[in-house]
Amino acid sequence: MVTAITFYIFATILVGSAIMVVFSKNPVHSVLFLILAFFNAAGLFVLLGAEFVAMILVIVYVGAVAVMFLFVVMMLDINFTELRKGVQDYLPIGLLIGFILLAEMVIIAGGWTMTDGIATAMTTATPPASEVTNTDAIGRVLYTDYIFLFQLAGLILLVAMIGAIVLTHRKRDGVKKQNIGDQVRRRRSDAYEAVDVKPGSGI
Amino acid sequence: MGKYLDIFVGWFGYRLDDWALLTFGTILNILVVVLPVLLAVAMIVWVDRKVWAAIHLRKGPNIVGPFGLLQSFADGLKVFLKETIIPAGANKFLFLLAPALSLIFGLVGWAVIPFGEGVVISDLNVGILYLFAVSSLAVYGIIIAGWASNSRYAFLGAMRSAAQMVSYEVSIGFVLVCVLMCVGSLNLTDVVLAQKNVLFGVNGYFFSGLFPMFIIFFISALAETNRTPFDLPEAEEEIVAGFQIEYSSMSMALFYLGEYANIILMCGMMSILFFGGWLPPFDWEPLYAVPGVIWLFTKMFFFFFCFAWVKMTVPRYRYDQLMRLGWKVFLPISLVWVVLTSGYLVFFGRLAS
């Protein structure tokens, strides 16, 4: 009963804040609602007993990605009324994509319930929750059966990162840069010299 | 924590409804931890000011109460009586939410800090991840404050804070990975127990392998809690107190409470992850006569002293140097250390299954 009540609380706030992400006028409010949505999704994961995924969701999405979103949205002074002008033009495409997503979700859910033996396959794939924590369980599967996919995902992220740096990095001339190594290596004798100057004569 | 429940069953003489008892017990547990933490924050502010004063060869607060011990409470009372000014053009809701958030994120981390074997509000089996998540959330109080204040200085402070915290979290993450590989568990009680039979809680591979990681963790903790030399978000001389420029009275005091609660939490993390938490420094029987909480608090107090010491000793980092330290020094070192530690553990077969 408690689980059901908490589920409905989390789920309602999740859906509500997801709607507000789209509909709020101020982009910063949108991002803040997005963060609320992430939190509630993490709460739902905890209810499922998937505390590892919940914590990773909070660390990665709330702790890093959403901070970057906020950073960008606050820095760029976006005029959203200007952006909203073209809404009517994009509506058909948006609806189409939404419809495709919905259809795919229905297909997944349908396949899930109708396939024979998926319930037993699911329970036998991992050891029971009482024996190992789900952190262990994920590790055992991820680093054995799915190691190639895991590495591939990492590789794609690496390529994306390098690509972003290559595209945005430009060399500029005439920029003064600090060389910490040089500064640390600098000794007193490099910059300072004591000269005994005789009176009446220069150096 | 069934202990408290039993005590209450004894007091009332009959069993309350399980539901009510559970709720009541949980709230009681939370209060048993949170109230001392808030009291500790008040006292640690006094300690902080005394340490600074000693370094300056001053006396520090010594008027209110014996040795000035009640100074923080006097300050709190004063702050209560002041007016909360909300600037015109500020986003009122977010402006008032931000200080509350920063205090809340300073307090929720205490839920998983073990004060002894089994003495913990929630013995999560992902305790380290929880602490990491909570410490990475602390930035929201500052960002929201900076944006909602509708002030350029506050905004600059918020931007600095966002970039700084995200950068240093990366190296903190790798440090935590090193620790949990040596322990083989994400549970904080297990982390402490793994350091038993070990000198200062950091001997064996703990000392030799993880001591450099402790140094990185300490410096990153300074950056995460916006303490000098990384207090750029509030830098008085450049951006006049940064994100808290528009805050007055209790809303400003909440920022301070949150900051100090976070600092003590970080001290607790350091004692638990690297110095054996509630275990005595040597594995010697008579030392166990001292309650574990005393050992934990002694270790935390020592690290807090280091925080205060650093604050009065080193000048502030420049922003580009801060970024360089985070990304070009700490990140590569901790990343290499993760590889070395895992290699060591695998090679010598010490990897916990």
Short descriptors:
heterodimer, A: 203 residues, mainly alpha, Four Helix Bundle (Hemerythrin (Met), subunit A), 10 helices, 74% helix, elongated, B: mainly alpha
| Oligomeric assembly | heterodimer
CATH architecture level-2 label of the domain at 1-80 in chain A: Up-down Bundle
Terminus-to-terminus distance of chain B = 29 Å
| Number of helical elements of chain B | 13
User: From the helix content, strand content and strand pairing of chain B, which structural class follows?
Assistant: mainly alpha
Which stretches of chain A are low in confidence, meaning pLDDT under 50 for 5 or more residues running?
A: none
Largest sheet of chain B: none
- Helices and strands of chain A, in order, run as HHHHHHHHHH
**What is the count of structural domains of chain B?**
1
Mean pLDDT of chain A: 83
Give the % helix of chain A. Answer: over 70%
Molecular shape of chain A: elongated
Q: In what range is the share of β-strand residues of chain B?
A: under 5%
Structural class of chain A: mainly alpha
Low-confidence stretches of chain B: 200-205
Task: Identify the biggest protein-protein contact and residues per side.
Answer: A-B, 22 and 28 residues
- Count up the helices of chain A: 10
The Cα radius of gyration of chain A reads 28 Å
- Content of β-strand of chain A: under 5%
CATH class of the domain at 1-80 in chain A: Mainly Alpha
Would you give the CATH topology of the domain at 1-80 in chain A? Answer: Four Helix Bundle (Hemerythrin (Met), subunit A)
Describe the structure.
Chain A has 203 residues and is mainly α. Among the domains of chain A are: 1-80, Four Helix Bundle (Hemerythrin (Met), subunit A), CATH 1.20.120; 130-169. Helices cover 74% and strands 0% of the residues of chain A. Chain A has helices at residues 2-23, 27-48, 51-75, 80-83, 87-114, 118-125, 134-142, 147-168, 180-185, 188-191. The radius of gyration of chain A is 28 Å and the shape is elongated. Chain B is mostly helical and 353 residues long. Helix content of chain B is 67%, strand content 0%. Chain B is built from 13 helices and no strands. In chain B, α2 (18-56) packs across α12 (292-313) and α9 packs antiparallel against α13 (319-347). Chain B has one domain. The two termini of chain B are 29 Å apart. Chain B is globular, with a radius of gyration of 21 Å. The chains are: A mainly alpha (203), B mainly alpha (353). Chains A and B meet through α2 and α3 of A and α5, α6, α7 and α13 of B.
